[in-house]
UniProtKB/TrEMBL annotation:
<dbReference type="Pfam" id="PF12802">
    <property type="entry name" value="MarR_2"/>
</dbReference>
<dbReference type="InterPro" id="IPR052362">
    <property type="entry name" value="HTH-GbsR_regulator"/>
</dbReference>
<comment type="similarity">
    <text>Belongs to the GbsR family.</text>
</comment>
<protein>
    <recommendedName>
        <fullName>HTH-type transcriptional regulator</fullName>
    </recommendedName>
</protein>
<dbReference type="InterPro" id="IPR026282">
    <property type="entry name" value="MJ1563"/>
</dbReference>
<feature type="domain" description="HTH marR-type">
    <location>
        <begin position="22"/>
        <end position="80"/>
    </location>
</feature>
<dbReference type="InterPro" id="IPR036390">
    <property type="entry name" value="WH_DNA-bd_sf"/>
</dbReference>
<dbReference type="InterPro" id="IPR011991">
    <property type="entry name" value="ArsR-like_HTH"/>
</dbReference>
<keyword id="KW-0238">DNA-binding</keyword>
<dbReference type="GO" id="GO:0003700">
    <property type="term" value="F:DNA-binding transcription factor activity"/>
</dbReference>
<keyword id="KW-0804">Transcription</keyword>
<dbReference type="InterPro" id="IPR000835">
    <property type="entry name" value="HTH_MarR-typ"/>
</dbReference>
<keyword id="KW-0805">Transcription regulation</keyword>
<dbReference type="InterPro" id="IPR036388">
    <property type="entry name" value="WH-like_DNA-bd_sf"/>
</dbReference>
<dbReference type="GO" id="GO:0003677">
    <property type="term" value="F:DNA binding"/>
</dbReference>
Amino acid sequence: MKMTPLHQEFVLHFGEMGSRWGINRTVGQIYALLFLSSAPLNADQITEALGISRSNTSMGLKELQSWGLVLRKHLPGDRKEHFTTPDDLWLIVRTLIEERKKREIDPTLSKLRELEMQGPGGDDYAEARIAELREMIEMMTEFYDDMARLETEKLVRLMTYGSRLAGLIDKVGGYLPSTKS
């Protein structure tokens, strides 16, 4: 596959962003290449297009498959495995968010709960801040879980109502649980 300047810039950006998101730069580049490819690619094509080692390609593909972000595709008459990304952008975004939650939010929430279970440690202020942070993360996690259960069509509709929902919340504000400021 010959990459155009558009491909190259997108792939390089995803590689850079991947390292900021906690994944290997090469994994981000493999994903970006497959995302932009109109046809499934085999490992040799990926290796050649990105100028990376075959072992890096294999490891990156395995990681992306484990997340459900890359799918295997067999092409008739070709013995090589080919790879592609899901067509549904919402599925991709939901998968990425869920993986970030598992890697970042869930362990933090577990640690905060563990710290609270240890009992009084002699610093009332720190204990109160930990409890407040845990409560906020639990509330956000419950909201995320509710949104994750919504069908994509309903979620999109909900998101398009953004400012109208904020106005509605202002109107019924007295009926909502108060938050500490």
